[in-house]
Write a structure and sequence with these properties.
- There is one protein chain.
- This protein has 308 residues and is of the alpha/beta class.
- The chain is 25% helix and 27% strand.
- It contains 9 helices and 15 strands.
- It is globular and about 55 Å long.
């Protein structure tokens, strides 16, 4: 099979296409012929050696896949050859998504939403599961609650906004001036231009904040949470912020996404109900993975996807 590999850590230029042995599905796994692979910021961090999840190279990057089941391993009854599937298998271990074939645990993939193509399905798993797990599993969001979602035009943010709205929340988000209209189009009840207005000056008393930015955003977000609210952060929360949160009975959840078939099924249901739509900023062929990484670093609206 053809796959994008790297023999050293570094910039996008370390990525190149090479022939690799075809994987075989072990017991409990399926072999997926990958049609599209989503790219996420964690991919660039691993590529550059800043987040050594996979140890030293050589390795094949990527976790988001959408494709067709080629073969099933022993003990697999949930899928058959020809099924269209998507998922985020093995994270944070190597899944090898930037390739023509990928072996994935059957428990970590699901049937692709019927209402979208493979490109858009590949944009959904990691960012979508992050949003779903953050809001539902960690945040325990309820209909009628007020939620602040930072960076509403980002990969996670634009999906989190739609999920929160679908679950009946009143959603406020932050965005840069060039992305305000896009965030409004997702159904935001209010959008804050963070270059002109400090979000801490917005109407507060939020029940939940989903923090996706880092820096001092976690501590600042406490100012707009009600006593007893929830701060869900994708990044580390400083001890000082945790101490302030404890004084006000604010629950702080530092989360990292995990493979989740049940979550994938929920996301697919929202897509097919036309309540969730992943936005793809640009599509690149497999042999332009380096260029795709360069483009992702410009922080486009939504997601970047490789076609295989």
């Amino acid at each position: 099979m053809r796959a994008v590999i790297q023999n050293s850590v570094g910039g996008p230029d370390v990525l190149f296409v090479a022939e690799q042995p075809d994987p075989s599905p072990a017991a409990g796994e399926v072999l997926v012929r990958v049609k599209a692979a989503g790219i996420n910021p964690v991919d660039g961090a691993v590529r550059g050696g800043f987040y050594p999840l996979l140890g030293g190279p050589p390795f094949i990057l990527g976790w988001d896949i959408s494709g067709t089941v080629e073969a099933v391993g022993a003990g697999v009854s949930a899928f058959k050859a020809g099924d269209e599937v998507f998922g985020m298998p093995r994270f944070p271990k190597q899944a090898g998504a930037y390739a023509e074939l990928a072996a994935a645990p059957a428990a970590e993939i699901a049937i692709k939403p019927a209402g979208i193509d493979h490109i858009h399905a590949a944009a959904l798993p990691l960012a979508g599961l992050t949003a779903w797990q953050g809001l539902v599993r960690h945040g325990r969001i309820q209909s009628g609650q007020r939620a602040l979602i930072h960076a509403g035009a980002g990969g996670v943010g634009h999906l989190a906004m739609q999920i929160a709205k679908a679950l009946g929340a009143h959603v406020v988000s932050t965005a840069s001036p060039d992305k305000l209209d896009f965030v409004r189009s997702l159904g935001a009840d209010e959008v804050i231009d963070y270059t002109r207005k400090d979000f801490t000056g917005a109407a507060g008393n939020f029940d939940l904040v989903l923090e996706t930015v880092g820096g001092d955003h976690a501590e600042a977000s406490l100012q707009v949470l009600r006593d007893g609210g929830v701060l869900v952060s994708l990044l580390n929360v400083p001890d000082a912020a945790r101490a302030k949160a404890k004084e006000r009975n604010i629950r702080v959840e530092r989360m990292s996404v995990t493979p989740d078939r049940e979550g994938l099924v929920e996301l697919a249901s929202l897509v097919d109900a036309k309540k969730l739509s992943p936005h793809v900023a640009k599509v690149f062929p497999l042999d332009q993975a380096g260029a795709a990484h360069v483009f992702l670093a410009t922080r486009p609206i939504g997601k970047v996807v490789l076609t295989v």
